[in-house]
Description:
By secondary structure, the chain is an alpha/beta fold. It folds into 3 domains: about 5-125, no CATH class; about 130-330, 3-Layer(aba) Sandwich (Rossmann fold), CATH 3.40.50.300; about 335-450, Orthogonal Bundle (Helicase, Ruva Protein, domain 3), CATH 1.10.8.60. Helices cover about 50% and strands about 10% of the residues. The protein starts with a helix and ends in a 40-residue tail after the last helix.
Amino acid sequence: xxxxxxxxxxxxxxxxxxxxxxxxxxxxxxxxxxxxxxxxxxxxxxxxxxxxxxxxxxxxxxxxxxxxxxxxxxxxxxxxxxxxxxxxxxxxxxxxxxxxxxxxxxxxxxxxxxxxxxxxxxxxxxxxxxxxxxxxxxxxxxxxxxxxxxxxxxxxxxxxxxxxxxxxxxxxxxxxxxxxxxxxxxxxxxxxxxxxxxxxxxxxxxxxxxxxxxxxxxxxxxxxxxxxxxxxxxxxxxxxxxxxxxxxxxxxxxxxxxxxxxxxxxxxxxxxxxxxxxxxxxxxxxxxxxxxxxxxxxxxxxxxxxxxxxxxxxxxxxxxxxxxxxxxxxxxxxxxxxxxxxxxxxxxxxxxxxxxxxxxxxxxxxxxxxxxxxxxxxxxxxxxxxxxxxxxxxxxxxxxxxxxxxxxxxxxxxxxxxxxxxxxxxxxxxxxxxxxxxxxxxxxxxxxxx
Length: 450
């Protein structure tokens, strides 16, 4: 059950209990409340329950109007503060109307209400370290927004809060080996202290290998969402080519960012760039950057630094021994087989209305397509139907979209278009924002996601 007055009373009760109970900390507050009370110094007591903070925490436009008719609430028009005149009456009113699920989503209240399970609520509540506001505060502390070099560095690193990751592990179709490696790394994170005690410190460096579009980036991000960890993503080609004179420094800063945000996941994409640089006559600054990268990988640790390192490459054949030995686990991301493609299609279409949908038949017709390809096929089928003012699709729509996709994809084998030697290769860089051919779908690597 939810209503404006119930939401505002929960907010007022939460601030009241939190201010009185010194055993409660910021991880006991639901994330929506933490955002409302966050300041440059974090969350400090006493929490000020005002119309403004209530509005931000509950998304109710006029919080006072929602509770003004209750006997146990008060409002100061001058300061805008909201308060409970009879906290015990408010608690009784709330427990009569709130279900157990609502209470168990609020550790502060679960700790004091008989209906609540504090330990379960605390475990299920996203920790402060996963909040966007917390991540931004650490970045602001480390980087000077007025410093041009720092500003350039932030352009090279993509830092995401877990709440900003749309894909979850439940949205993915994974192989048994992939699932096994994810379980193992989750256990390693859970038992870091034990691993340190027995001296097993060389753990927590994974290398994802496989063709573009097979889910390497998506799986790493989903893992961040599952573990409530900040996700720090860097593409080696950007860090080591944008500013030649600062390449080694940029690499060092990337690892420093990860350590500052720890516990977190540091995802290094395009790892084959290491081998390309080491085996070529590239600029000396690039080679220094690569050596710095390899040294930084050696020095960072899941056990000591609480940083899970994941590298990814589309070209494992280009890696040399120096690159391979930096990782303790290699996770293969092959193109999905027919069963996996059928599973992907089922989940991707779960919110679609499709007449006579046969995912197995469609999977049989999409040999060689990745999860990313399948999403593109479905997107085109939906858009084609919308041009006919239809929101209900048919199996024929999907099969036609597959044929169209394969026809477009085959164009990438053409060297030139109509003999124009300056023309773009079909399926290559077709737009300023980096569009690509049918199989290489860019940085997002949305592969066996569904």
